[in-house]
Structures are given as C-alpha cells and as structure tokens.
Design a protein that fits this description.
By secondary structure, the protein is an alpha+beta fold. The protein has one domain. Helices cover about 35% and strands about 25% of the residues. It is built from five helices and six strands, in the order ββββββααααα. The protein has a six-stranded antiparallel beta sheet with strand order 3-2-1-4-5-6. A hairpin with a 2-residue loop joins β2 and β3. α1 packs antiparallel against α4 and α2 runs antiparallel to α3. The longest helix has 26 residues.
C-alpha cells in the first residue's frame, strides 16, 4: 500500500518548453521524494512569477466530495498566495498521464526505472514527445548522483540479499514491482493509441 497522502505536501516547480509553449511541472514531495506530479501550460493564472520555485500542494474535498488540489506559495512580501483548482487549466489528456505516473510513484517503483521507461516511449505526435521529455527532465533531478543506469526492457533484479525478509514480504515486494510495471504498460498504451475521450481513458485504467 502506498503511504497515506497528507493534506499538505511540499512542492517544487520545474519549467520546460512543450512544442514551443511554456509549460510547468508541479512535483509534490513526500519525505523529500516525488509523490505526485501535475503538468500544464504556464498561462493565465498559472503563469507564476519566475521567482516562485517552491510551494505546497494542498488537497481538499469540494462540496460534491471530489478531490481538489490547490497550490500555495509565498510571495516576495512574505504573504501566502493560494491558487485554487490546480487542474482547471490543464488538458485532461495530460492530466490523466500525470495521474498514472503519480500512482506508480506512490507505489514505490524506483525513480530511475520510471524515468527510463517514460523516456523510452515512442509516439508519433511531437507535442507528446516534447511533453514526456519535459517530465523526464523534471524527475531526473531527484535521482541521486551515482545511481546505476538501468538497461531498458530489463526488470529490476531481485537478489538473495534483497530477500533477507520472510517469503511473504518478498512476494509482496515482487507484486508491487509487477503492479508498477502494469501501470507503465498502460501509460504506453495511452501514448501509442489514437486520442481517446476522458471516459474511454478511465475505462482503460
């Protein structure tokens, strides 16, 4: 089971270009590690001042019981500024991709494996390729220096040393890796198939 999300997460902002448009990634951190990611065009109200590099992602329930994510940062005068509804200017297709990636991060797939697999996805649309390249750059900064490179298409090896815990724990670990792998397989299907409606994408998941 993934760790329970606190109501408030520290967050970093990473800016990048997607198909000649300014975009940003808002990365929520749990115990200093990426826990969730939101991406969207840096336009209108979500075009934060350039000095804003960090902040907080705050999760709320709206009057219908649905989740709402707000972003809060401290301005140069020391006042906290809250932007409600982080997703309202984000394209639903990218929002779904980011939700998938976030779900896999929460379940503990090693970040270097996730980055390598996202980077290896091949799609025809240039705007999707530039988007995934921006996501890869955003996440790579959280991989510690000296982390061994991952061979593509190779599952993470499990050694006897890794399995010093009881068999049940080892089985749970393996199940978690398989679950994360299935999630990335679904991401690859979404990237490689024709555009779907929001409802069709949810059905695939």
């Amino acid at each position: 089971m993934p760790p329970k999300r606190p109501e408030r997460l520290e967050a970093n902002i990473v800016r990048f270009m997607n198909n000649d448009e300014p975009w940003m990634a808002v990365i929520g951190l749990y115990e200093g590690k990426p826990y969730e990611i939101f991406t969207g065009r840096a336009i209108d109200i979500f075009k934060f001042p350039d000095y804003v590099k960090t902040g907080w992602i705050i999760k709320h329930k709206d009057e219908t019981g649905a989740n709402r994510y707000d972003f809060q940062f401290v301005d140069r005068d020391g006042y906290r500024v809250t932007i409600e509804g982080l997703s309202r200017s984000f394209n639903k297709t990218y929002w779904n991709y980011a939700r998938l990636i976030s779900g896999i991060m929460r379940h503990g797939m090693p970040l270097q494996h996730m980055v390598d697999l996202i980077d290896s996805l091949n799609v025809e649309e240039d705007y999707i390729n530039t988007w995934k390249n921006g996501v890869v750059r955003a996440l790579k900064q959280y991989i510690p220096d000296g982390t061994r490179a991952v061979k593509r298409n190779a599952p993470p090896a499990t050694t006897q040393k890794d399995c010093c815990t009881p068999k049940a724990a080892c089985a749970a670990k393996a199940a978690g890796i398989r679950s994360a792998g299935r999630g990335l397989w679904k991401i690859s299907l979404l990237f490689q198939s024709k555009p779907r409606t929001f409802a069709a994408q949810k059905k695939l998941l």
